[in-house]
Write a structure and sequence with these properties.
With about 120 residues, the chain is an alpha+beta fold. The chain has one domain: Alpha-Beta Plaits, CATH 3.30.70.1060. About 30% of the residues lie in helices and about 35% in strands. The chain has a four-stranded antiparallel sheet. Strands 3-4 form a two-stranded antiparallel sheet.
Length: about 120
């Protein structure tokens, strides 16, 4: 099964982190990246995202298209990155993400559109 792991955090946490704290984040991501294949899974993709101020939202309603540049709603946490993983099941992903830094993490199954 494929799952997307969405990583949310207040952007100021990373911005204000010391070099040592940032290095610890990378160490924890490396631990996650090692645990996934060791647990029978695979990381299929993933990226860190540029801050929310750089986002552009496109909303289409019928023929009307509205383009808005960010930032958008005031929120305490922003989507900062993601992983796309292949895993035996949700329980495996739930265990692996415990190795990541302190984020709010959303795990969602990826829809199999081959049967659609």
């Amino acid at each position: 099964m494929r799952f997307v792991v969405l990583l949310y955090q207040d952007e100021t946490v990373w911005r204000d982190a010391s070099p040592a704290e940032q290095a610890e984040y990378f160490t924890q991501h490396d631990a996650f990246s090692a645990a996934v294949p060791a647990g029978g899974g695979a990381i299929l993709g993933g990226e860190a995202l540029v801050g929310v101020a750089s986002a552009t939202r496109v909303r289409r309603r019928g023929e009307h298209v509205d383009v808005t540049e960010g930032p958008f709603a005031e929120t305490t946490e922003q989507l900062g990155g993601f992983y796309l993983v292949e895993a035996p099941d949700l329980d495996a992903v739930t265990e692996w993400v415990r190795l990541l830094p302190e984020y709010t993490i959303e795990i969602r199954p990826v829809a199999d559109m081959t049967d659609a």
